Structure formats: C-alpha cells, structure tokens
Amino acid sequence: MVLSRDGLWLGLGTSLGVYVVDARTLEERRFIETGGPVRAVAMSADGSLVAAGWGEKVRVWRVEDGELLLGFEAPKVVVTSLDFSPDGNYLAQGADDKRVRLWRVATGELAQMLEGHKGGVNAVTFFPDSLSVASASDDKTVRVWSVGNGRLERSLISYPAAVTALAYSSDGLWLATGVSNGEVWLWPTEVRGLPQVLRAHTGRVTALAFDRGAGRLVSGAEDQTLRLWAIPQGSLERTLRWPVGRVRGAAFARDGQTLFSGSLEGNVEHWRASDGTLIGALAGDAGPVQALAYSPNGQLIATGSWDGYLRIWRASDGRLAQVLFGHAGGISDVAFSPDGGLVASTSEDGRIRVWETGTGKEFATIQAGRRGLWSLAFSPDGRRLLAGGWEQILILSFPEGQVEKTIDTGPGPVYGLAFSPNGELLVSSSGDQTARVWNGFDWTLRATLFGHAAFIHSLAFSPDGTLLVTGASDGVLKLWDTREFAVINTLQGGSTAVNSVALSPDGRVLAAGSSDSFVRLWEVPNGRELISLSGHFSEVKAVAFSPDGRSLASGGWDDTLRLWMVR
Questions:
Q1: Residues 295, 231: one domain?
Q2: 72-81: long-range pairs with CB below 8 Å, 24+
Q3: Number of domains in the chain
Q4: Which of 93, 168, 429, 484 could hold 416 in an S-S bridge, CB 3.0 to 4.6 Å?
Q5: For 436-493, what is each residue's pLDDT tens digit?
Q6: Residue 166: alpha-carbon gap to chain centroid
Q7: CB-based contact 240:226 (threshold 8 Å)
Q8: Residues 200-231: pLDDT tens digits?
Q9: What is the pLDDT of residue 284?
Q10: Is 275 in the same domain as 303?
Q11: Would you state the pLDDT for residue 244?
Q12: Of 379, 412, 445, which one is at a domain's C-terminal end?
C-alpha cells in the first residue's frame, strides 16, 4: 500500500492487480488487472501515475484512464520495491539481484544501475529533493546514492539483521529504517551521528512513514501491530492492534490526524491517530476464499477466507458491505442462520464466531474444537449449531452455545456437514472416504455410504431431500437416493479434486467447484453436463446458488468471488 505525496490517493497492490482509492472516502477510483500478485506499488506525487511490480515486471499506468504508459522487465529478477521521485522524473526499482535501477519516467530509459549491495534490496525511497535515493538490503546495510551520477554518498552499517523498510521525513532531517528483528533505527541526515534505536516490535518491520510535520513516525510489522513514535524523542506514543494483519504499508493522511495501514491480506485500515480508533476498513480483494453462503433472502453473500477475514458482500452489485475479523486462523466454513439475522464462521483456531449481519457486531464466540474446526451447519429450526472437528461432530444449543452431544465419526477431520431440508437427516463426511447419515433428532447412525476412493470434501441435499450429492478429492461426484441410500449416478468432475457442490433451488442443476479452476454444471438426475465455467485462476473452493436460482457464486484461492448468471 502507498499514499500519493499529495495525500489524496491510495494505491493498493493485491493478488489480482492494483486498486487506486480516494483516501478521503475510501471509494475505488480505478482497478488495473496485472495478471499476477503485486509485490510492489508506487504512486507519483500528484497521484496521476501508478506503478506496480510483480515477478520480473514493472508497469506504469495513467490513473485517469488506466492506459499503460511504460513497461520494464529484467529477466530472472524479482521486483521487491518501487518509489517515484518527488519531482516525478524517476522511478526507483529494488530487486532481489542486489541492484537498484533508476528509470526515466518520461522515456522509459534506464538512467542508472546502482550496484554495491551484497544482498537483495528490500526497500527504496527518494530524498525529498529528488537528488538522492536510499536503498535497504538483506546485507544489513542502507546505502544512499546520487541520482545524477549514481555514486554512493553514504553507507549506514552495523545493523544486526536485514534492513527491510525505509522512510525520509518530509523536511529531510530524518531517515527511518526498519530491521527484520523488529527494531527501528532513526538516523539524522545533516550530521554523521549515531542512530536512535526504537524497540517495541517483535516481528520484521515492513512499513515506515512520517507525518507531514515530521513530529511522528508510524512503524508497521509482521507482529500485526502499528506503533506511533514521537520524533525526535523516539518515545512510543501508542500501539494499534486490530489485529491489522501482517502490515505491508503505512501512511499518514494529509492532515496528519489519521493514518492508513495496508496488510499482506489485501486490506486497508483507516485509523484516528490521536486515540488509535479504527475509523474504517477496505478489502482489496476477497482473500483466498475457502467457503461461501447466500443469506436466505438472497441479498447477501458471506465469504470466509484463509486470511482469517469474514467478508459480507451485496449480491445485487457485488460490492463489499462489511469486513469482519476475529479468528486467529483461516476460516474453514460459513453459514447463515435460518432467519438470516446471523452469520457464523468456523476456523482452524477451533472457534465458532457468530455475527449480526445487519451491524457486523459480534454476537457470540464459542471455543468448540481443540484441533480446529472444518465444517458448520445450522439446524433448519435454528435451535442448534453443529461443527465438524477432528473425528467428531459437536452439537451445540443455540444461541446458548452449550455442547449437548458429541458424535464420534470416522478418522480425521469432518470435512462436510449438511442437513436435509426438513431436518430429519444429517450427513457428515470424514477422512475415511465415507459419508455417514445420522438421524437429525436423536443423532443415531442411519447409514454409512461407501463408494468413493478419496476424501469426500462436500455435500448437498436437493430441495425435497430425496437426493444427496457427494464430491470427492478424486474428481468424482455421486448422486444418492436418500430413501435407499443407493447410488443413482456417478459423474466425473475433471481430473482434480471436487471441493464444493451445490444444487439449484429447483433441484435440476448441480454445480461443482474443482481444483482445476473450473465450475461445472450438470443436469440432475441424468448427469448431462451443461457447461464448464472458466474464469478463476486457481482452485475453486466454494460454490452456492442464490435462493432464486438465477445466479451462482463461486470463490477460489485466486482471491476472488465471482457471480455467474445461470438462468
């Protein structure tokens, strides 16, 4: 994440591309797709240009219309950092090949190749007068170079570990440097004195920024904190914990009263600097989606991602409505309550968290699993909440959250849970390649379904409850008659794992999301394949039909939620 020097625009690099956002309203101005996960992003001082680096590529676009202006590539080099000079004439590029490259923005020509580091370059930043540029490296040094002739002007050494972040104060009097051991070293630029060493972080420092008056410094680190320091005293004023995720960018707003932080998980948080209050949040993408669900009225879609965030989207236009965080691990499943007033999520942290869909307030937190939770289901009457853990199903009263019963299942995690629409049957899938059918009232075992040759990841009932679909990691789907518990059809869903299955509200169409990035649709029960939907760039982990059957939602590990019109 980067803030333009005029303080008006935020640039956010994600796994899909670059977002340019109005820093005053957090409204999206421009999205530019890159075709690869962005490692570095920079904006020109006036916000008119945005640059992104991924792999060995660097591209520069005009923000107004998204037109590509420049492109640079250095074979077998990974771009790590970018910065525009304040005068707009140069773009500095740091890379893992130990070099800093200075490109002329007007022509795209290479102006300087700065060599001297003995380790990869982690960060670059220009001095406010644009005459020099600093670079931080894995070799435990910071080097300051002349832009005009490329000569080394100063070396800052004696660091205990790799230097990972840089920032000059706006008046040029201070250079802040972040270290991978969590320290921040504050150097005076006008005298050759020793630095102040600021200690508070417990993880790699990845972001630094001064306010415009140079009276405060914010540092962000992989310990999921932001720290505010008084300058020049070097005293710690405040620690901000949301948690904000693994911080990858930080910047003070134009007035210095608020600040922004950007995380590796693709999110931006907006804070009030005076008291550390979180003012707002913006999700740059959907995160690596593991689970999704439509609300009963079809107006909302909840996605649970491996970054630990639960996101609520408006189904009408696909806009993000809320970002909810509380889990200490990736989210494995999500479910709406039957009335749609609540949404629940499970996680590898062993907790169930329940949220109010209207306000985003946390309704309940239930510690339910010692070894993680993999699946979740509300009973049709909403009086019970079931969670699939390690070799067991936990049946909890709701909303009390008390464990009423524990059902022992097959070996390994319970990957899937599904109630029949009338609540008479509960089906679970485990790591022994079987599905088990339980009585939905007394929890006794009714049947064990054999036939798959791999783990069963997903389950779905037809609207009338007479058909059950199971999807397994060998790419096979099976359709079962729930009266006789017999297979009535077997479908091949590609050559890779079927991760999620869903039946349309009329029971006539089956959708499956697979690890080969496709979503496939079949006619039920005859098994005629209707279409294969392509668009995801990675595994499709979740699919769900809207309650009216007109659209299908799919989420994947390419950090996207996609909506398809299917009727």
A1: no
A2: 72/101, 72/103, 72/108, 72/110, 74/101, 78/39, 79/39, 79/40, 79/53, 79/54, 79/55, 80/39, 80/40, 80/53, 80/120, 80/121, 80/122, 80/123, 81/40, 81/53, 81/121, 81/122, 81/123, 81/124
A3: 3
A4: 429
A5: 999 999 999 999 999 999 999 999 999 999 999 999 998 999 999 999 999 999 999 8
A6: 25
A7: yes
A8: 999 999 999 999 887 999 999 988 889 999 99
A9: 54
A10: no
A11: 46
A12: 412
Please say which residue of 264, 285, 306 terminates a domain: 285
For the CA atoms of 190, 196, 197, 200, the dihedral, rounded to the nearest 10 degrees, stands at: -110
**What CATH number did the domain enclosing 248 receive?**
2.130.10.10
Domain that holds residue 164: 158-285
Q: How far apart are CA 64 and CA 49, in angstroms?
A: 8
Residue 396's pLDDT band (boundaries 50, 70, 90)? very high
Sign of the torsion angle spanned by Cα atoms 481, 487, 491, 495: positive
Using DSSP's 3-state secondary structure scheme, residue 85 falls into: coil
Q: Which residues contact 21 (CB under 8 A, 6 or more apart)?
A: 9, 10, 11, 12, 27, 28, 29, 268, 282
User: Is 59 a domain residue?
Assistant: no
pTM of the model: 0.64
